[in-house]
Amino acid sequence: MKLNTAMAVNRVTDEIWEIPPSEKPGMLVPARIYATEAILSSMDSGVFDQVTNVACLPGIRRYALCMPDGHWGYGFPIGGVAAMDVRDGVISPGGIGFDVNCGMRLIRTDLTLSDVQPRLDQLMTELFRKVPAGVGSRGFVRLNRQEFENVMTDGARWCIARGYGWHEDLARIEEQGCIPGADPSKVSDHAVERGISQLGTLGSGNHYLEVQVASSDRIFDPATASALGITGHDQIVVMVHCGSRGFGHQVATDYLKTFEKAMRRYGITVKDQQLACAPFHSPEGQDYFAAMNCAANSAFANRQIITHQIREAFRTVFGKSAEEMGLQIVYDVAHNIAKVERYEEGELVVHRKGATRAFGPGRPELPDLYRQIGQPVICGGSMETGSYLLVGTDRAMQETFGSTMHGSGRTMSRAQAKRSVRGEQLKQQMQKRGIIVKAVSMSGLAEEAGFAYKNISDVVETVHQAGITRKVAELRPIGNIKG
Questions:
Q1: Mapping DSSP to helix (H, G, I), strand (E, B) and coil, where does residue 66 land?
Q2: Catalytic-role residue among 207, 249, 351, 406
Q3: Which of 4, 257, 302, 430 is most exposed, with the fewest beta carbons within 10 Å of its own?
Q4: Does the active-site annotation cover 464?
Q5: Over the stretch 89-144, which tens digit does the pLDDT of each residue have?
Q6: Which residues of 330-339 are buried (b: 16+ CB within 10 A; e: fewer)?
């Protein structure tokens, strides 16, 4: 097998590969990659270099991990997971990403394809009108500074209190849509300026809103699917992928500068300046953690406002209330975040960057309605292929700090994708295959062509076979909104 690295990569199982600490000076733990042979051989050299750089960070425990959707990212690989001991470990914005709490939300309906198909174009037009997309887009919610600070501390709860959702929504959001410890005084004025008008917006890049179909023949675990509200029979669902927008980006930018100075103060050296970090319990580390939680809560609020707008769009098009059509959240999960969690080593600050929490059944962090089946995991594919609904497992708790993949993972740069296809051409091709696309930018659409991503089914099958997540259902796109 030919790999894009000269380092030794040893097979542990058919889906787990390990780079020993002897392969790079400074590695404190081995690096482990979850992949099949085919996926591993297609990974770019950055994955191997970056995951072994992460293995050198102070306080890291057990392994530096990369999931099968892994590819080069800022500092950490996308698909990266690393757990640092809170007593002697660090926190690094590069291990969380600029789009803090970028995440996925899935909304079920009682509608079927036969209900929606005749009005699909009207529905996509209404969704495109109600959910702004694109760089710098602004939402309809107008906030002053104090109200935005309340969003930072209360997250999705702020939205529910103001009528942008149902009280029962909260139980179906990771952390019930509000992470404690957010402190707006740790956020810069510039971050506030960038975020204060962006609630309820998708943004650009790979963010999207997608109308999908759950067919009976693509449900792999009917009992678990039923518990999640997925019934098959060409059921219509809606998937949302977005995060904290410019607000989270500015928080990360601000603290990367702070950490570059802090590292000199604490005598920390890193293999890559993009891994700038600070001791978790240092003043700088705690300030970033508080600011990051502000951004995470704003992302929960962002997806909640978008959910409100989705319900409004369906009401407008179908002339029924959202309650009558069963537009209920299945789950909302973050895949760019750091959290303090308890494992056999003690309290660890678990960095997940392009990786999803996948707690197994019985964990007290899970809502009552899902505690018996494990945490729902929502993995988005490319806009041309399917997406998946999965659940977490006990094995993920034992092997990956309760973590798994988040999507399909890129195989080529956005520039390369744009050189390969024109946006208008791609839009027409997708329409012929029954997928209606509404996009702010045709060049942005070309960046997200299906061939620019790994095969989502191959990636999902890897984590399913590895036992760190269990697949429940595949969802097929019929309408997509891109920034």
A1: strand
A2: 406
A3: 257
A4: no
A5: 999 999 999 999 999 999 999 999 999 999 999 999 999 999 999 888 899 999 99
A6: bbbbbbbbbb
